[in-house]
């Protein structure tokens, strides 16, 4: 695939994400599956797409400063991705970046547009080392230069203070690690490390995780199911259960899709049986496909809305996992488009949904059983505030301290795991472990 086609695909992916509210990982996978794309071009497209989305506000601020009048949406996407390449990607000469942008803009919006794009990009190129950008105050400068919407910044500032909020915002634009989790049903961690050699290092965050220098989805070790891609923080959900692995448990995952945590739990608690539920049947197919690939036989998938009570589940499970839908603030490094969707109203609505799922799921836990609540967000309304409310209204549950083996992650004083994205170079995450006691009168 030549460079113009790679850039065109990057443009089409970006247009879908920015103008049609698409998700970066889903949209990229759709195009990668649709076309035959070499690994080198996949890396180029991914860098352009993620880099442009992560820096969207800053790139558009530069564009606004160096253009007059309104820029059409299609042309704005081409200019934004080209400005990103000029400022952050030095492997391609500037003249080539501009030339390809002009060709693409002519194809998308006509010859006159090509001249317009050429003029703007050459002007920005000339001033790249000293861009003439105006800001009203230091806060606006920080938010624009880090491409953080004001509402998201204010949420973080209110909950964590200015200094911590700024560290979190800066971390959103950092690159995440290539984290994988070994599959104990097919290989030991030691054997996988030996096979991967210098390309891999052990995780300090989760004992079941490894970190690759470079991710290769064509690797036979991946295609044969020796490992699966999963962030280190996400992998802590299974290890937070903390019960003897050899025992037999009945386990329920109420919001399982796309299934990474269910698959991990099933392979870790290999003597146990696991029901993985989700209300979207097409997402359950992902679990079916992966459990076959990984050699997992103790998962049963079931179409089930987590907000609706299933009487046949009542008091049946030793372990119930509620990995609830969330705002996703903790995974912005990998899904940068999320930061442009965050509003107070959205967070408040999703926190109510989470609590509804938690309240419904409590009925499925046996006395003495474990109820594990997790999110990939760092907004306190979705995390500790939901847990505190639940404990106040359900006196037969207590908060248990989570204990991790071989991890640098520290449990908070109240026993929960609250991982902020600036602290461990992984996703932001929250996990609380609740135990069901005998009901108090």
From TrEMBL:
<feature type="binding site">
    <location>
        <position position="305"/>
    </location>
    <ligand>
        <name>S-adenosyl-L-methionine</name>
    </ligand>
</feature>
<keyword id="KW-0698">rRNA processing</keyword>
<protein>
    <recommendedName>
        <fullName>16S rRNA (cytosine(967)-C(5))-methyltransferase</fullName>
        <ecNumber>2.1.1.176</ecNumber>
    </recommendedName>
</protein>
<comment type="function">
    <text>Specifically methylates the cytosine at position 967 (m5C967) of 16S rRNA.</text>
</comment>
<keyword id="KW-0694">RNA-binding</keyword>
<keyword id="KW-0963">Cytoplasm</keyword>
<dbReference type="InterPro" id="IPR006027">
    <property type="entry name" value="NusB_RsmB_TIM44"/>
</dbReference>
<feature type="binding site">
    <location>
        <begin position="255"/>
        <end position="261"/>
    </location>
    <ligand>
        <name>S-adenosyl-L-methionine</name>
    </ligand>
</feature>
<dbReference type="Pfam" id="PF01029">
    <property type="entry name" value="NusB"/>
</dbReference>
<dbReference type="InterPro" id="IPR035926">
    <property type="entry name" value="NusB-like_sf"/>
</dbReference>
<dbReference type="InterPro" id="IPR001678">
    <property type="entry name" value="MeTrfase_RsmB-F_NOP2_dom"/>
</dbReference>
<dbReference type="InterPro" id="IPR023267">
    <property type="entry name" value="RCMT"/>
</dbReference>
<dbReference type="InterPro" id="IPR029063">
    <property type="entry name" value="SAM-dependent_MTases_sf"/>
</dbReference>
<dbReference type="GO" id="GO:0006355">
    <property type="term" value="P:regulation of DNA-templated transcription"/>
</dbReference>
<keyword id="KW-0489">Methyltransferase</keyword>
<dbReference type="Pfam" id="PF22458">
    <property type="entry name" value="RsmF-B_ferredox"/>
</dbReference>
<keyword id="KW-0949">S-adenosyl-L-methionine</keyword>
<keyword id="KW-0808">Transferase</keyword>
<feature type="domain" description="SAM-dependent MTase RsmB/NOP-type">
    <location>
        <begin position="156"/>
        <end position="437"/>
    </location>
</feature>
<feature type="binding site">
    <location>
        <position position="323"/>
    </location>
    <ligand>
        <name>S-adenosyl-L-methionine</name>
    </ligand>
</feature>
<dbReference type="InterPro" id="IPR004573">
    <property type="entry name" value="rRNA_ssu_MeTfrase_B"/>
</dbReference>
<feature type="active site" description="Nucleophile">
    <location>
        <position position="376"/>
    </location>
</feature>
<dbReference type="GO" id="GO:0005737">
    <property type="term" value="C:cytoplasm"/>
</dbReference>
<dbReference type="Pfam" id="PF01189">
    <property type="entry name" value="Methyltr_RsmB-F"/>
</dbReference>
<dbReference type="GO" id="GO:0008649">
    <property type="term" value="F:rRNA methyltransferase activity"/>
</dbReference>
<feature type="binding site">
    <location>
        <position position="278"/>
    </location>
    <ligand>
        <name>S-adenosyl-L-methionine</name>
    </ligand>
</feature>
<dbReference type="InterPro" id="IPR049560">
    <property type="entry name" value="MeTrfase_RsmB-F_NOP2_cat"/>
</dbReference>
<dbReference type="GO" id="GO:0003723">
    <property type="term" value="F:RNA binding"/>
</dbReference>
<comment type="similarity">
    <text>Belongs to the class I-like SAM-binding methyltransferase superfamily. RsmB/NOP family.</text>
</comment>
<dbReference type="InterPro" id="IPR054728">
    <property type="entry name" value="RsmB-like_ferredoxin"/>
</dbReference>
